[in-house]
Design goal:
This protein is mainly beta. It has a single domain (3-48, 55-228), classed as Exo-inulinase, domain 1 (Jelly Rolls), CATH 2.60.120.560. It has two helices and 13 strands; from the N terminus they run H-E-E-E-E-E-E-E-E-H-E-E-E-E-E. It has helices spanning 3-14, 119-122, and strands at residues 36-38, 47-48, 54-57, 60-63, 69-71, 78-86, 91-98, 109-114, 150-158, 161-166, 169-175, 207-210, 219-228. Strands 1, 3, 4, 6, 9, 10, 11 and 13 form an eight-stranded antiparallel β-sheet that branches. Strand 3 (54-57) and strand 4 form a beta hairpin. The radius of gyration is 16 Å and the shape is globular. 39% of the residues are buried.
């Protein structure tokens, strides 16, 4: 799907009335509109998580260990909208299509969150950097803000298509059907061995999750909203 087609899909889905300044610019959705709801409910009341690890402090969600928090509900087609703030060296992610929330890594797709300005992640493989489909497809045209500032994600999963908007710019789009191997991506790069199921074979009905404090650095989330697509 071409970028302009993806953007038009966003506009139809989100009911945006803004005019695009350029072809990869996408308006931020109004998440107070009809159908939008808090992914995890009020005070994490609709989430699956370890209460000793995840905390909601005045609407900011963070974890003390490398453990994921999951939506209680499972989703098919949806738009996910959220804010995230990196610390120095953050490595985290948004997890979609998770059919197994215990052994989730081979049974889901991860949209990467990383502090690309840090020493470690600035030198990482591009498919390990922010807004990548982790292990599969790097992002382009990134407008990531540095650690300590809030970033905004709008992630759309519709059928086998995944589209990622970072800070108002379309930075990645992926057709899961193109990824038929568990070893080699379509561009010839190697897939991490722990992603043992080809992305094309993954089920689309599953939980949405957020990864916690991974690689020793915290991550912060707020305004985590979801809209089901019919």
């Amino acid at each position: 799907m071409k970028k302009l087609q993806v953007i038009l899909m966003f506009l139809c889905i989100l009911g945006a009335n803004a005019i695009m300044a350029q072809t990869n610019s996408v308006p931020v959705p109004t998440t107070t509109g009809k159908g939008w709801k808090n992914l995890f409910g009020n005070n994490l009341s609709n989430a699956i998580y370890d209460k000793a690890i995840w905390k909601d402090s005045s609407g900011v969600i963070t974890a003390s260990k490398d453990d994921a928090i999951w939506s209680f509900e499972e989703y098919d087609d949806f738009v996910l909208d959220l804010d995230f703030q990196n610390a120095d060296g953050t490595n985290s992610g948004v997890i979609v299509h998770a059919t197994d929330i215990v052994e989730w890594i081979p049974h889901s797709v991860e949209i990467q969150i990383a502090d690309d300005y840090s020493k470690q992640w600035s030198k990482a493989d591009p498919s390990w950097q922010c807004a990548a489909i982790f292990g599969h497809k790097p992002a382009t045209n990134k407008s990531l803000k540095p650690a300590g500032e809030w970033n905004h994600y709008t992630i759309t999963c519709k059928g086998k298509m995944i589209s990622i908007v970072l800070n108002g710019t379309l930075v990645n789009e992926c057709n899961m059907n193109d990824y038929t191997s568990s070893k080699i991506n379509p561009d010839g790069t190697n897939i991490p061995s722990w992603l043992s199921n080809p992305m094309s074979t993954l089920e689309l009905h599953g939980h949405i999750g957020l990864q916690g404090k991974h690689a020793g650095a915290p991550i912060y989330f707020k305004n985590v909203k979801v809209l089901k697509l019919h």
